[in-house]
Amino acid sequence: MKIEEDLGFINILKRATKLLCDASVLENLIPLLIQTFLLYLFPYGLIDLFTTTTIVSASWTVHTSEEEPLRFGQLVRRTVEICQNRLEGCLITSLYVLLLSTPVFFGFLFVATNYFHIISLTGSGENSYYYSINIEEDAEGYYRSSSVNSPVKMLFDAVLAMFHGAIFLGLLAMFSKWSAGWNMGLVVSVLEEEENGQSIYGTDALTLSSNYGKGHEKRGLQVMLVFLVFAIAMRMPCFCFKCTESSNGNRVLYTSFYVGLICVGNMIKWVACVVFYEDCRTSVLEKKGDVEIGSKGKTFVA
């Protein structure tokens, strides 16, 4: 019916106007996004860079050490030497990784925003999808009633969720696959150098890591998915129970516990990345022998 279509269009138009004119949403959302971006860019990024360089260099020193057993003082000294020589190159590589990963994060944000925007316009979860107006005559006059087409509503919800869910999962798989190469590029920046002693960083490190990772994409994807699920699992309890907003004295204890778990998971992730790098590099050098990939860089031995 024409009147049904007009009513649906007016309803959507009202919701769009209300959403666009809601200044409180913009006032709260924009500062939060800016604060989160600055937090992840400067303090968190620098701390993560330092810990990444330290973990990778320490794990590689233990792996390649010919001394049995390796003393703690020697481990610290060699780790510091590697970090001093490789921190700048690792920083440049991490900036390239940030530049490459930003479009993927914007893709996640766009998918989520588009999904909730459509829900807000169509009124998902409310009785506002399809209204049919029936004008009937009784003994007292005319009255107007509305009804909801529930099967159509459920079908629309399912199709909408499946469509955005498929896009989200596709982006997640692509991000996990690419992050394996990006993380290996950071490992290359820490552990490898050119024949003239200069460190390998930036696009050179990412290109070399791409060459190492050929044929190992599936395993890299699996490794990154495992640690992605682990990272989400470690953060979800704190979000669900709001441990940082607790009013009792256990707030610091809960926060310290979850931060400790996240740090342990981060350490295990980078140790796994070092092992993955060593396996890929060894496989490439065994297949091709002493060719251009093997001659481009030699492993830095402390």
> What is the global morphology?
globular
Oligomeric state of the chains present here: single chain
Provide the spatial order of strands within the biggest beta sheet: 1-2
Radius of gyration (CA) equals 27 Å
Report, as a whole number of angstroms, the end-to-end distance. 79 Å
For the sheet with most strands, the description reads:
2 strands, antiparallel
Protein model, in words:
This protein has 302 residues and is mainly α. The protein has one domain (42-299). Helices cover 77% and strands 4% of the residues. The chain is built from nine helices and four strands. Strands 1-2 form a two-stranded antiparallel ribbon. A two-stranded antiparallel ribbon has the order 3-4. A hairpin with a 4-residue loop joins β1 (134-137) and β2 (142-145). α2 (23-41) packs parallel to α3, α5 crosses α8 and α6 packs across α8 (251-288). The longest helix is centred in the N-terminal third of the chain and has 51 residues, at 72-122. The chain is globular, with a radius of gyration of 27 Å. The N and C termini lie far apart (79 Å). Mean pLDDT is 75; it is low at 1-7 and 125-148. This is (thale cress) hypothetical protein. Keywords: Membrane, Transmembrane, Transmembrane helix. The chain crosses the membrane at residues 20-42, 95-116, 154-175, 221-241, 253-277.
